[in-house]
């Protein structure tokens, strides 16, 4: 059992699962409060379909990686990791900016679905909201499982535990519990995901360097920056834990090291900056007679 991979999988599953669970909880609570509880089953149908499809996508991606030969295997792995980093980074900032108005947007979407007389649109609403989080989770977990080689099962087990915790938090939110400060939760788990994403990004760069070497191309910065394997190897013990959580490498290439540090510093600075308050809405112009 790789504790580092287990921990990273749990963090990914918990953070991404909570986002999806909150969406479902907000919609369910609004339906019950407005006397439309008869449509709750449609929400569960859309949620179940999105969850199942997300799992299929994740499994298909992970299985596909082992089906390629060099250099296509490294190219596919690197591209999967790069795509996962891009999607997760975008979603971190999207959730940070939109979380304040998310509840109102979901209520408005439910009202539209009910007002149009197509209650099955609620299933589509739940499916659309959850599949976005589900595909993001599938990509991120696939990238993480690929980056830690033989510890994919630990990542999967941690993700299941994290998703279980997310369900409990979502249930508590539905019941009106304030046991979890969601603002602090998203802030700190977001910081954790940034470090995991930085590790995936540097691993993606490493895969591309391998592709270049296989086809006979020498990339600038492909040389080893340092080698402290004798002091702290990334294959065992603490080094293995740090690799699964932070993408640590005992012998990184110069390019991967620069990309790793640059991503952490740049994205953390942007993520931790205070949000600028929205300016006042302009007053409507009143036409004079």
How would you describe the overall organization of this protein?
By secondary structure, the protein is an all-alpha fold. 74% of the residues lie in helices and 0% in strands. Helix 1 (3-33) runs antiparallel to helix 2 (40-65), helix 1 runs parallel beside helix 5 and helix 1 (3-33) crosses helix 6 (182-214). The chain starts with a helix and ends in a 17-residue tail after the last helix. Residues 281-289 have low confidence and may be disordered.
Based on helices, strands and strand pairing, what is the structural class? mainly alpha
How many helices does DSSP assign? 8
Shape: elongated
Helix content: over 70%
Q: Please, how many domains? A: 1
Alpha-carbon distance between the termini? 78 Å
The description of the largest β-sheet is:
none
Rg, Å, rounded: 22 Å
Spans of at least 5 consecutive residues whose pLDDT stays below 50 are 281-289
The run of helices and strands is HHHHHHHH
Share in β-strands? under 5%
Question: What is the mean pLDDT?
Answer: 81
The beta-strand count equals 0
Quick summary:
The chain has 289 residues and is mainly alpha-helical. Helices cover 74% and strands 0% of the residues.
Features:
289 residues, mainly alpha, 0% strand
Per-chain topology:
Elements: H1 3-33, H2 40-65, H3 72-115, H4 121-147, H5 152-174, H6 182-214, H7 237-246, H8 254-272
Helix pairs in contact: 1-2, 1-3, 1-4, 1-5, 1-6, 1-7, 2-4, 3-4, 3-6, 4-5, 4-6, 6-7, 6-8
């Amino acid at each position: 059992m790789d504790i580092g991979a287990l921990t990273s999988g749990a963090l990914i599953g918990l953070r991404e699962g909570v986002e999806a669970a909150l969406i479902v909880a907000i919609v369910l609570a609004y339906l019950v409060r407005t006397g439309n509880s008869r449509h709750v089953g449609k929400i569960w149908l859309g949620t179940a379909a999105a969850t199942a499809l997300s799992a299929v996508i994740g499994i298909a991606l992970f299985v596909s990686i082992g089906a390629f030969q060099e250099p296509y295997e490294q190219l596919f792995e690197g591209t999967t990791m790069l795509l996962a980093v891009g999607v997760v980074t975008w979603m971190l900032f999207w959730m940070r900016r939109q979380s304040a108005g998310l509840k109102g947007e979901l209520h408005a979407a439910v009202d539209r679905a009910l007002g149009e007389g197509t209650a099955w649109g609620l299933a589509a609403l739940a499916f659309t909201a959850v599949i976005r989080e589900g595909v993001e989770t599938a990509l991120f977990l696939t990238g993480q499982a690929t980056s830690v080689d033989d510890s994919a099962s630990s990542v999967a087990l941690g993700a299941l535990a994290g998703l279980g915790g997310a369900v409990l938090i979502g249930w508590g939110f539905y019941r009106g519990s304030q046991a979890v400060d969601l603002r602090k939760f998203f802030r700190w788990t977001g910081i954790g995901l940034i470090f995991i994403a930085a590790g995936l990004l540097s691993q993606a760069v490493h895969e591309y360097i391998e592709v270049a070497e296989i086809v006979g191309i020498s990339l600038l910065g492909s040389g080893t920056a340092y080698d402290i394997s004798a002091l702290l190897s990334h294959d065992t013990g603490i080094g293995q834990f740090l690799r699964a959580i932070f993408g640590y490498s005992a012998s990184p290439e110069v390019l991967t090291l620069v990309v790793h540090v640059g991503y952490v510093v740049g994205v953390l600075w942007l993520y931790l900056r205070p949000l600028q308050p929205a300016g006042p809405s302009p007053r409507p112009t009143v036409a004079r007679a």
